[in-house]
């Protein structure tokens, strides 16, 4: 006789990883997720929406793929108010679940291997998942089963790979996945000193099966081979983060690492211990020469963010500073009074307000504006002011306040997703323009408050210290920057609206079980189990008790 020692009563709902990619359809295919309610209406022509990718999220051992359904506004439903109101000709946007899987292990990291611009954009992306200690799975969408299937699996554990651990049995970090923007390869940092390169297969390769090559959605990106780079051989130790850069013919990986370790008691004597090193990855020759590097970065630098084309380069985010580095230029921005430059002869520009960016998440809204989500829930907008490929300075502004995020990703050119372990994850629409609204006379564009229709305890919160939002009532944010090769400054206006959300029932702070009020004391057998109930308390800004009966 056997019985289950552990039973999962509710699947995890706290989002840990999120990414966007064309999983179920390609970028060149028609976008059936866009619906127009009235074709022959007098509604003004708005900017056409580009291809909208899928949203892929993971929560513990649960993997889910969503489709974004967008409804364009018309004159017939102008009076109908939906969540988020009317913005840029869109009246509603929602998340539609395509497939969901409960895996036999927790997902540590996730990436999307892009098909790139080959085959006229008819290729589809694939999902790469990593599991402890060094296991990777590559998934693609199957039109026949309308679900995901495994295209390849990679494992670097067991007796043949003991030498990669160098005598260690446990590691603080699991395998972290980063993908080349051109889709040439993916990098997996494992065992805190090994870089695993997963080379993507070419479109005309035999690894792209005929069943996927002639499917309606196009062929999916696949992994052809893999090899290992020992970072010790490159004199790279104490790696904190890595990222692939935009704008290079071959993949270029930038690694943030620390030359000498320091700690709080030695910061006054040894503080700028980090550096970034850029390596060109040749997946054919398996060579990786160093092309440029930057030293004297603060010890609290922890995250890299690749700057999109045409600017290029990388942002180094620290707790007290933000640095930009590329082959041609570099600049810095101090965030608070704890920031200081290594060379006392140079003055570092300072932000107009104090903020700390440790444990922050970031994504790009445009090619020169990044959005940062801080540990306190604030949303900040970082503008890169540049001329050509030369970055002149960085400008940081306050925007909204949000849930405490565990991940953030941009979906297409008008949506982004805020994933959270502590609150509800939100799908938010944004618009960026230089002028006013172009709606018909007599109709007012309704940009709903970003907190509307969300639970009061888990919604996007306004920061009480944000004086800028008090002036504009949380409706718009103006950024000032210079366009490339243009001396006059242009005003950029960003507007936000919450379109959909994923409910999070946790995390649990404590729980207890006992007899129900209307319990049947004479019950026997299975019916006796229904006499008990489990009462749990959630970590939230407002107290709540959620009973679960029948346990």
Question: Count of helices?
Answer: 3
Structural class based on helices, strands and sheet pairing: mainly beta
Overall form? globular
First-residue to last-residue Cα separation: 22 Å
Relative strand content: 35-45%
Please outline the major beta sheet: 5 strands, mixed
- How many E-type strands? 33
Rg estimate, integer Å: 25 Å
Look at the structure and give the mean pLDDT. 81
> Low-confidence segments, ≥5 residues, pLDDT <50?
37-45, 435-449, 451-489, 541-551
Helix content: under 10%
Architecture overview:
It is a single chain. With about 550 residues, this protein is an all-beta fold. The chain has 3 helices and 33 strands. β32 and β33 (about 545-550) form a beta hairpin. It is globular and about 80 Å long. Residues about 35-45, about 435-450, about 450-490 and about 540-550 have low confidence and may be disordered.
Keywords:
single chain, about 550 residues, mainly beta, 5-stranded mixed β-sheet, 5-stranded antiparallel β-sheet, 33 strands, globular, disordered C terminus, Beta-prop_RSE1/DDB1/CPSF1_1st, RSE1/DDB1/CFT1
Question: What is the element layout, followed by pairings?
Answer:
Elements: E1 17-21, E2 34-36, E3 54-59, E4 62-72, E5 90-102, E6 109-113, E7 126-131, E8 135-142, E9 147-155, E10 176-179, E11 185-190, E12 194-200, H1 210-213, E13 223-230, E14 239-244, E15 252-258, E16 274-280, E17 290-297, E18 301-306, E19 314-318, E20 321-325, E21 330-334, E22 361-364, E23 369-373, E24 378-387, E25 390-401, E26 407-411, E27 415-419, E28 425-433, H2 467-472, E29 477-482, E30 489-502, E31 508-515, H3 526-529, E32 532-538, E33 545-549
Parallel strand pairs: 2-4
Antiparallel strand pairs: 1-3, 3-4, 4-5, 6-7, 7-8, 8-9, 10-11, 11-12, 12-13, 14-15, 15-16, 16-17, 18-19, 19-20, 20-21, 22-23, 23-24, 24-25, 26-27, 27-28, 28-30, 29-30, 31-32, 32-33
